[in-house]
Write a structure and sequence with these properties.
Helix content is about 25%, strand content about 35%. By secondary structure, it is of the alpha+beta class. Among the domains are: about 90 residues, Trypsin-like serine proteases (Thrombin, subunit H); about 90 residues, PDZ domain (Pdz3 Domain, Roll), CATH 2.30.42. The strands form 3 sheets. It has a 6-stranded antiparallel beta barrel. A 6-stranded antiparallel beta barrel has the order 7-8-9-12-11-10. Strands 13, 14, 15, 16, 17 and 18 form a 6-stranded antiparallel beta sheet that branches. Strand 2 and strand 3 form a beta hairpin. It is elongated and about 85 Å long.
């Protein structure tokens, strides 16, 4: 009996190997069939699944994070029959914005930066982690829009799409900085067009997630072009529930262009330096060891301001602006006041025994806000 079992085991191995070979062969032919089918689909021009990486990367470079300090009334106390004391408190507001112009203009929602007494204090962080102070230069309460300005090079303005070509069901993406976790992208579709609700213009409705911190960010189409500025959500809980709204790009950017033009026309240029005393022979000798240096000693420069961006440093002596010799602080003020934000001025300084010249693109100081 044992001899029979040994014989059966010996005879069974070739059969088992044959079964395994058959299984491998079947899998091979099945895989080859799948490959041939894919090749045939490709040859017949069948569309491949869409890839949105490039579109999102292009648009993402134009979307920034905005951190604003909001000053509001926290408490009111009656201190007498004719006196009421207001106690103010600061609260950080986080939101998003979109670079619309290489000159440093950023579009966002007004409610991202809005605060009591127009006491604006905002900081912008770019997608490449560069960070700079920002000036709020214009407001549009009707459309819940605000325009900020930053002094910075190598900015990437977003490309503009045509929301008039949007249709319900089109794929869109929301790009912003929700909950301060960094830049984030959510995908959705156009849920509806033409909603006005309590808004002054028809809004784009989408189910792409718009969470706290995403307000003011970009709603883009499948090509990476801006079609809307993320504005609000409809929610009973305060969190996103699948109904979000964006201001159409044509409305938002059109309003922003008018705001920028008015802000430039209304404001004077701003260099962003704090100067000390006018140098005399005595102070020149004291500070620099020679008695012939004349001009205004720079005590500090605004972070992210025009002077800092140009390369002017504390300790420099401003000796001339354009063709005007600087003899006192009024020389600087009057020369700059005649210019507009964005104008270029030539600033001559004395530094460590050398005369240097810088070109500074003037920015906005304590901007006069334009609110149509």
């Amino acid at each position: 009996m044992s001899r029979f079992l040994r014989l059966a085991n010996f005879a069974g191995w070739p059969a088992m190997c044959g079964v395994l070979v058959a299984v491998v062969a079947l899998q091979f032919f099945e895989l080859r069939g799948i490959r041939d089918s894919l090749d045939e689909l490709a040859q017949n021009g069948e569309p491949s699944p869409p890839v949105y990486f490039d579109a999102i990367a292009r648009a993402g470079a134009s979307v920034v994070s905005i951190s604003a300090t909001r000053v509001n009334v926290e408490a009111i106390e009656r201190a007498g029959d004719d006196r009421v004391d207001l106690y103010l408190g600061e609260q950080e507001s986080l939101g998003s914005g979109v670079i619309i112009d290489s000159r440093g203009f950023i579009l966002t929602n007004l409610h991202v930066v809005d605060t009591l007494f127009d006491a604006f204090d905002a900081t912008v962080t770019l997608s490449d982690d560069r960070r700079t102070p920002a000036k709020v230069i214009a407001l549009d309460e009707t459309h819940d829009l605000a325009v900020l300005h930053i002094n910075m090079d190598e900015l990437t303005p977003i490309s503009l799409g045509d929301e008039a070509e949007l249709a319900v069901g089109d794929v869109v993406f929301s790009i912003g900085y929700p909950h301060n976790i960094g830049q984030s992208v959510s995908q959705g579709i156009v849920s509806s067009l033409g909603h006005d609700l309590d808004f002054s213009v028809s809004m784009i409705q989408t189910d792409a997630a718009i969470n706290p911190g995403s307000s003011g960010g970009a709603l883009i189409d499948a090509n990476g072009a801006l079609v809307g500025i993320n504005s609000s959500i409809l929610s009973e809980s305060g969190n996103f529930e699948g109904i979000g709204f964006a201001t159409p790009a044509a409305v938002a950017v059109g309003a922003a262009s008018e705001l920028v033009a008015e802000a430039i026309a209304t404001n004077s240029g701003y260099l962003g330096v704090l100067t000390g005393e006018a140098l005399t022979a005595q102070s020149s000798e004291l500070f620099f060891g020679v008695d012939h240096i004349r001009g205004m000693l720079v005590e500090s420069v605004d972070e992210g301001g025009a002077a800092a961006r140009a390369g002017i440093l504390p300790g420099d002596v401003i000796t001339a602006i354009n063709d005007t010799t600087v003899i006192d602080d009024e020389s600087i003020v009057m020369e700059v006041l005649e210019k507009k934000p964005g104008d270029i001025v030539r600033v001559q300084v004395y530094r460590e025994g050398r005369s240097l010249e810088f070109e500074a693109a003037l920015g906005f100081g304590q901007a006069i806000l334009f609110d149509p």
